[in-house]
């Protein structure tokens, strides 16, 4: 009888435990935007807000978790790549900062780069070690790019913002 009771108690304990297995996954987002031309006078320029739908509930579900089980979300890659016009580069950018915001959350600095070199068509920004899980849980996030330039650039540049989030969560 004691054996049966012990087996029943063990089975009940095992079945009542929460699944606390961790999972890690990556979420990638990209959006096109225009980096404005400059006049050759050094001043800060901001882009229009770049909004990206997160589809977070669906993406969390695809990774066997949910928003309430996210432990940490970090930006591991933050890049601006030139898509046009052909034959141009991003050398006219002296300094660039990228900010992220979401409804009900403060705008935060997420990455910087000090200078673009001649011929650069891809800028990889230094990211902050900031947990951005609350932003990722929002239905959409917005990015604002601010840069300085003292060079003359007669044409706007078509660019692509690439953001990669590394997410740590507990499985649902």
Attribute tags:
single chain, 172 residues, alpha+beta, Jelly Rolls, 6-stranded antiparallel beta sheet, 4-stranded antiparallel beta sheet, 12 strands
Q: End-to-end span in angstroms?
A: 36 Å
Helix percentage: 10-25%
Low-confidence stretches: 8-17
Radius of gyration: 22 Å
**Mean pLDDT, nearest integer?**
90
The first-level CATH class is given as Mainly Beta
Q: Which quaternary structure do these chains form?
A: single chain
The CATH topology label is: Jelly Rolls
Count of DSSP-assigned helices: 3
Total beta strands = 12
- The second-level CATH architecture is Sandwich
Beta fraction? over 45%
The tally of structural domains comes to: 1
Which structural class best describes the helix and strand composition?
A: alpha+beta
Characterize the largest beta sheet: strand count, sense, and whether it forms a barrel: 6 strands, antiparallel
What is the molecular shape?
elongated
The H-and-E topology, N to C, reads as HEEEEHEEEEEHEEE
């Amino acid at each position: 009888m004691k054996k049966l009771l012990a087996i029943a108690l063990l089975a009940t304990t095992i079945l009542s435990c929460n699944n606390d297995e961790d999972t890690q996954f990556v979420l990638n987002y990209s959006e096109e935007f225009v980096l404005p031309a400059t006049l050759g006078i050094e001043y800060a320029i901001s882009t229009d807000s770049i909004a990206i739908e997160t589809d977070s509930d669906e993406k969390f579900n695809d990774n066997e978790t949910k928003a309430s089980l996210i432990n940490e979300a970090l930006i591991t890659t933050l890049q601006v790549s030139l898509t046009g016009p052909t034959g141009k580069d991003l050398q006219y950018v002296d300094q660039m900062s990228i900010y992220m915001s979401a409804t009900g959350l403060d705008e935060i600095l997420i990455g910087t780069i000090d200078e673009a070199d001649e011929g650069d068509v891809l800028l990889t920004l230094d990211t902050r070690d900031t947990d951005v899980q609350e932003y990722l849980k929002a239905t959409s996030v917005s990015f604002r790019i601010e840069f300085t330039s003292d060079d003359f650039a007669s044409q706007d540049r078509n660019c692509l913002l690439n953001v990669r989030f590394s997410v740590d969560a507990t499985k649902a």
